[in-house]
Specification:
mainly beta; Immunoglobulin-like; 2 domains; six-stranded antiparallel beta sheet; five-stranded mixed beta sheet; 23 strands; 53% strand; rod-shaped; DUF11 domain-containing protein; DUF11_rpt
Length: 303
């Protein structure tokens, strides 16, 4: 007689024997009934849970990682086939799934060269209530824009079978009993989200003139002050931002005139961000987050 018990291990035998006591005039007696044995069938259930709300990514980025946990919520050891869906809809773009990895050292972090590449057909049984961490690696298309969201669904399906709750697979459960599909359909899934955190840079240059006569005419001897404003837009950041500007022909650089955000910089290639090498100015701005600006000025004299 098969029975289902989500908490009791599949294959466990539940035995029960009744007894009766009586006195038929010759003293107290006890008799036992026959024993009824029930083998607990295997319940096929699985839960998949994404481990982050939004994983930041950038246009064209490769090997972007989504992390999931797959838990065998059934009562018997079961292997689960893994798959992904990247065009579920409800998002702004479809990530390009490259590979699936299993967390080999159980540290919850993807380690290239350490974690195990998932190959369909190589699944190992997951014990009841045990969990494995799964990493999905994907590429973000270069055409995405800041703030776009991409969804990848990880699906884990019981190798024994899936279906409507209560579906039975005769003789395929642990210990030779039946395998019964549980409330999850033995086919769990959850969405992982990428959020594009991109940044763009705009550069605006202007000039003002002070001539030797107190006016603003571009005559020989006039001083030109150039102002360059770099603006970073978007929710991401840019790294290695630098401004370079060649000194115009027919002008001469005014020594020590470079400023960044109103603070003077030296002409030497030293610890500060700016330098002048004889033909151009250079200012290294480093990493700049979206929503910030950097303003540079320098001066030249018309020959």
């Amino acid at each position: 007689m098969p029975a289902q018990a989500a908490g009791t291990l599949a294959g466990t035998t539940i035995s029960n024997t009744a007894s009766a006591s009586f006195d038929n005039g010759s003293g107290n007696q006890t008799i036992n009934s026959n024993t009824v044995d029930m083998r607990v069938d295997e319940v096929l259930d699985v839960v998949v849970a994404d481990q982050a709300t939004d994983v930041p990514t950038t246009p064209g980025a490769t090997n972007q990682v989504l992390t999931y946990r797959v838990t065998n919520t059934g009562n018997g050891p079961e292997a689960f086939a893994l798959g992904t869906i990247a065009n579920v809809g409800g998002d702004d773009y479809d990530p390009v799934v490259a590979q699936i990895y299993i967390d080999a050292n159980n540290n919850g972090t993807y380690d290239a060269g350490t974690d195990t590449l998932y190959v369909a057909g190589s699944e190992s049984a997951l014990q009841p209530d045990a969990t494995m961490t799964v990493f999905v690696l994907a590429t973000t298309p270069g055409s995405v824009a800041d703030g776009n969201r991409g969804i990848v669904t990880l699906v884990a399906a019981a190798k024994t079978g899936t279906g409507a709750p209560g579906t039975a697979f005769a003789g395929l459960g642990e210990g030779g009993g039946d395998a019964i599909v549980g409330s999850t359909g033995a086919d769990g899934q959850d969405n992982g989200n990428f959020l594009v955190s991109a940044a763009t840079v705009s550069l605006v240059k202007s000039a003002t003139i002070v001539d030797p006569f107190g006016g603003s005419e571009p005559v020989p001897g006039a001083i030109i002050t150039y102002t360059i404003t770099a603006t970073v837009a978007g929710s991401g950041s840019v790294s290695g931002l630098a401004i370079n500007d060649n000194i115009p022909a027919d002008t001469a650089y005014v020594a020590g005139s470079i400023t960044l955000g109103g603070s003077p910089l030296t002409d030497a290639a030293d610890a500060d961000a700016g330098d002048f090498n004889g033909t151009r100015i250079h200012i290294g701005l480093g990493t700049v987050a979206g929503g910030q600006t950097r303003t540079v000025t320098f001066r030249t004299r018309i020959n």
